[in-house]
Each structure stands twice: as C-alpha cells, then as structure tokens.
Write a structure and sequence with these properties.
With 325 residues, the protein is an alpha/beta fold. 47% of the residues lie in helices and 13% in strands. It binds phosphoenolpyruvate (PEP) and magnesium ion.
Length: 325
C-alpha cells in the first residue's frame, strides 16, 4: 500500500473530470518537515505552532520561536506555509502557564481569546513569524475566531508589528496573507463580512463538529455520536464553499475530515479545492481523487441535501457511489 502511494508522489492531484486539488499537509514540529518531500504535498496548510510550546518546559523565547519558523520556511522552500498562531487553552495546556480553573475549558479562555487579552504574547509570536519569513511569502491564521471583530483586532496587531519592524530596518515578508480558522459556528453567519477582511479561511472541522453538535471531541462517549457526513455539517460546509467562491477569499479545510478519503470525496464534490491533512493521508486521498468525477458526486450530494438535510448520514450513499465508481 505505502509503496503504491509512494508512486503517486509526483502524479498531479487532478480528478477525472479535471478539478485540480491542492493537497497540503498538517505539521507542527521539525520532525514533520521531511514529509513535505516524501508525500509530494503542495505546502503546509496548517502549522500548529503550539506544539513547540507544549513540549517545552518553559515559554519558548522569541529567538527560539523565530529559529523554528525559519527552519520551517527554509524546508518548505518555494512551497507555501500557513502558520497558525498559538492555539492553547481548552485541551492544550502549557505546564508553565498558570492554570485557570474553568468549568468548560473548550468554551473557555483559549486560542485567539488569550492572544487578544495578552497581546504581548501574540505580538512576540507575530514578530518572530515576520522576521523568519523576511523577503518571502508568509501566511498567518488565527484559531477559534468567533467574530469578525476579533479577526480585525488580530490583523491590527500584525500591522503594528510590521510598522515596528520596518522602522527598525527589518525587511518584511515579500507577501503576507492573513486568514481566520472557521471552527466556531458563529462565523458561519458572518461569511460575507469575514471574507471581506480575511485573505483566506481554513475550516477546522474537528472543532466545528464539536461546536456545531455540542459534542466534546475528547469524550469518547459522544465524540463519534454524529457524522460529519450528515445534513447539518454538510450544509454548513456547503454554505462556506458557496459564499467563499463568490469572493476572492481562498478556502482550505485543515481538519481531520479532509484526510479521510470518503469525507474528502464529499468535500471535493461540494467544491473544496484545497485540503490540508496528516502526511499519511495524502496518498489515500490522492488515490481516491484520481478516480473521482467531482461534478457527479457534487450533484449527488446537493440533490440529497435538497431532498432531506435532516440528521441522516449520507455515508452509505457516498460509500455506494465510491464503490461503483
Ligand atoms: C480543527 O479544529 O479542525 C483543527 C484543525 O485544529 P485542531 O485540531 O488543532 O484544534
Ligand atoms: Mg481547532
């Protein structure tokens, strides 16, 4: 199997009916970087910067942060990298940060909420990213954005750091794109506004599922209770892809569903053209899409959602389609 996938490394990711799919990988540590080469991925669609913080015994210094980001940018060469700013809190605890007692940590003080309340921390990270990508292209995205205003405030922090660095004579990135993760359902109802201020959106399907269905993703009793291939989630995804396509806002899915072949088939059918996933998923997803008629599966899903968008899973129908084609 692995060997068969290895052979696909240099095969362009194009569906049978000609849709070009951008397959990128999710990473978070230096050890992940060789996968860029061995999978033939088109870039890093999600670099989880919190991992460096989580494995460290103390807060990584600005220099240490910059060193990691520089190494990532260097390894990627001409390929794009999307760095996600610190996504801590919830289930991701830093041992050296004072623990806050929270009744519902997943709904608590986390991710961009911490970043905006402790701008010193976020600005240090942004500065390290800007320096690491000096003269090159850089993409930064913010986790757990719930309102457009949060994104605008984070963007203002980036602007401030750019001015600060320029004033001190540092060359800035040659190109800078800022994006929001779409993983809090409230953003589904601000799509027009967020697409106007953000350069790109990246769907965090793990958290979007958690918050859409109110199921703790870490709680085995409920985590798999609802299917992402059921009406509510597929309709949410359809809404995003339809609205984003009408604007210049780039769109990626970087949650786990993009790395599962049947789910990836549904995403491509709905119109997604960029997926970021664990390195081991690239081969299986590419093998699937090379045999896929995207328009056909798209029509099937849209018909089904039109007919009955209730809680029923489309998994059996999609599995049948996959088998027949
Ligand atoms: C997600 O929520 O889907 C996501 C990509 O982020 P994480 O899994 O790191 O929360
Ligand atoms: Mg998330």
């Amino acid at each position: 199997r692995q060997e068969q996938y290895l052979k696909l490394r240099d095969v362009p990711a194009v569906t049978k009916d000609g849709a070009k799919i951008n397959l990128q990988l999710n990473a978070g540590l230096l050890v992940d970087l060789p996968h860029l080469d061995d999978t033939g991925a088109c870039g890093i669609g999600l670099f989880r910067t919190e991992l460096q913080f989580m494995i460290s015994e103390r807060m990584p210094t600005a220099t240490e942060q910059q060193a990691l980001y520089s190494a990532v940018v260097a390894a990627a060469g001409d390929l794009p990298v999307t760095f996600r700013t610190l996504d801590i809190g919830g289930d991701k605890i830093l041992p050296y940060m004072q623990a806050v007692e929270e009744e519902n940590p997943a709904l608590g003080w986390r991710a961009i909420r911490i970043g905006l309340d402790r701008p010193g921390l976020l600005r240090m990270q942004i500065r390290a990213l800007l320096k690491a990508a000096s003269g090159r292209a850089l993409k930064i995205m913010f986790p757990m954005v719930a309102t457009c205003d949060e994104f605008v405030r984070a963007k203002a922090l980036v602007e401030r750091e750019k001015v600060h660095l320029s004033r001190h004579g540092y060359p800035l990135p040659a190109d800078l794109k800022l994006g929001a993760m779409l993983e809090v359902p409230s953003l589904l109802f601000q799509l027009k506004e967020i697409c106007t201020v953000a350069d790109f959106l990246s769907i965090g399907s793990n958290d979007l599922m958690q918050f859409l269905f109110a199921i703790d993703r870490e709680n085995r009793r409920v985590a798999d209770r609802f299917d992402p291939l059921s009406g509510p989630m597929l309709r949410a995804l359809q809404r995003v892809v339809d609205k984003a396509s009408a604007t210049d806002c780039e769109l990626t899915v970087c949650g786990e569903i993009g790395g599962r072949p049947l789910e990836a088939m549904a995403l491509i059918g709905l119109g997604f053209r960029s997926l970021s996933m664990a390195p081991t998923s690239i081969g299986p997803v590419k093998a699937m899409l090379l045999a896929l008629d995207a328009d056909r599966v798209g029509a099937l899903i849209r018909d089904e959602l039109e007919r009955d968008g209730g809680g029923d899973s489309l998994r059996p129908i999609l599995a049948r389609f996959a088998k027949q084609h």
